[in-house]
Structures are given as C-alpha cells and as structure tokens.
Amino acid sequence: MSRASTRFDTKKVNSELVTLTYGALVAQMIKDLDNTEDVSKQLERLGYNMGIRLIEDFLAKTGTGRCLDLKDTADKIQSAFRMYLGVQPNVANWSAAGDEFSFILDSNPLTDLVELPDELKNLKYCNIICGVIRGALEMVQLDVQSWIVQDQLKGDQNTEVRVKFIRRLEDAMPAGED
Amino acid sequence: MSDDAVFEFLHSELINYIISQNEGKSKEGKDEDLSNIEYIGFSTGYRIIERLTKEMPRFKDELDTMKFICTDFWSALYKKQIDNLRTNHQGVYVLQDNSFRFLTKLSSGKQYLEVAPRFVAFTCGIIRGSLANLGIGCLVTAEVQNMPSCKFHIQVQRT
Question: Which of A142, B25, B34, B52 could form a disulfide with A137 if both were Cys (CB 3.0 to 4.6 A apart)?
Fold first, then answer.
C-alpha cells in the first residue's frame, strides 16, 4: 500500500498519538474510579485484552515458531517491544531457577509526555505493558505474572518490567471430543 | 516495523472500557452515551495538533486550516487523505472519508451499522480538539451510511 504523502514523520506521530490517547484514557479512568488501585487493575485488564490480539499480529508479521525455553520467549518479547513500542529493552536479572526475568527499558515512549501528580504516586501507569505480556503469553499457553519493579515516572533510573513464569497451560479439549 | 496495530487495539479497548462503564447507567431506548469517548479524543486532538503545528506558519484562514486537517493531519493519523471536502462558505464543512481507518476492520454490510457511532466518536473529538486549539470553536458530528465510509460534519460556531 502506498503511503499518502504527508509532511510529518508518521512513525513519530503514531507513537505520540498512542501516548496521548493513553494519557487521556488514564485521566478518564481516574475520574471514573476513585481508587487508584482500581485504575491500575483496569489498565492491566485493558492491556490483557490488547495482548491477546497483539500476539496474533506479532506471529503473523514475524512468522516465528515455537519457543524452546523461557530464554527464547524473553528474546521474542524483546523484539515485540521493539516492534510495538519502538524501544529495545535489555533482558536481565534472571532468577536462579530461571523462571523469572526482567525487561529493562532505558526510555519508555508511553511515559514520554507524562508527569504524575503527587497524589497519584501509587498509580501503576505502565500496568498496560504487564497486561499485554500476560495476555499475549496466555495465548501461546504460558501462564505468567508480570509487574512493574522500577518506573522512570517515579524517579527511578530505568523502567523495569518483571515477568514470572507460573506454568504451562494445557489445551483443554471441549467436552465430548477426543 | 509499524505500531499501527497498537493504536488500533488501544482505540478499541478504549471504546470497550467506556461502554462497559456506561452499562447499567443507560436508559432503554436512548442513544448510547459516547461523550466520554469524544472527550478523550478532544484531549488527544488538542495536544497532538499543538505538537504537529509548532514549527508551521499561521494558517491563512478557516478554509486553509480545514485543508490542512484533510490532507497532512489526516494522512498522519489515518494513513490517507480525506476524499472529499465540501463547504457552504458559511461555517459548515463536510469531510468525507470513503474508507475510514476504524471502520475498515468491521464488516461492510449492514450488520454493525448501529454500533458504528462508537468507532467514530473518538475522531469527532480529535477534530473538535485540534480545531479548538487552532482557534476555531466548532461542533463535530459524524454520519455513517455505508460502511466503511464516513462523513464528518463540522459546524463552526461564530460568536
């Protein structure tokens, strides 16, 4: 498809559009729900819903096959970050058992134009990312937990997203079928 | 690589969220309340236009502004230009997009025609917000007759 001509850098506009829309949405949620805890939860759910669709887009565009182990999975998610968020995080802080790891983001486009007021310091603004990871992995039979460890919005050096592997999901056959 | 999909999914989740918030509140037979979706669009449009036009010279007049919205602005956001712009030169503008980005993913039959307003409310807000920031106060409504084409009516408010 030929791109319509525009004097703007479409990629940059698109990423700002996502950032601004997300910001406006979060602001609306804060208005709707009075508990920041609920807002964080809602954001995670929203991310989950996006994740279960994004994985399909990811698989279609990259044509990747099965992952052999969690390290493999981490690499794939890393490239998904680059595809969808435009930044490449580092994979680090593996736990001794090899079932937990972190993505370290030097910069986070999602929070580029964002400032959190003091009374919202416990809002997990980037929870959508955790939701996306959980949703996407659930669609490839991996049950994981994900949460934010460090957040640049709150004055930390980097943004760190932790992922913990829980178990492999088995395909449940519909009743009455072999 | 593109992150177009992210915006599209975010847009549909946003609608999903607002609609689920509305549930229980709405009264039978009344039109759905899409004002919150429109307002999110408004805030987004108000901010994005400022970032896009900060290096640009001032627009000549209202029509010039509208042309900018139809071409550069629309291509940046919706990957194509507006197909048709009409005006009565008295403050009414009609922008027609024959293949509107958020409607192309829906069936083009009649099946989802009644939920189509959900998918254009955000954009009405975007238009209203960006024009507001450029100093033009207006009302924006949308009309979907045949998917995936959509008409945006802009009524400039003169005081």
Answer: A142
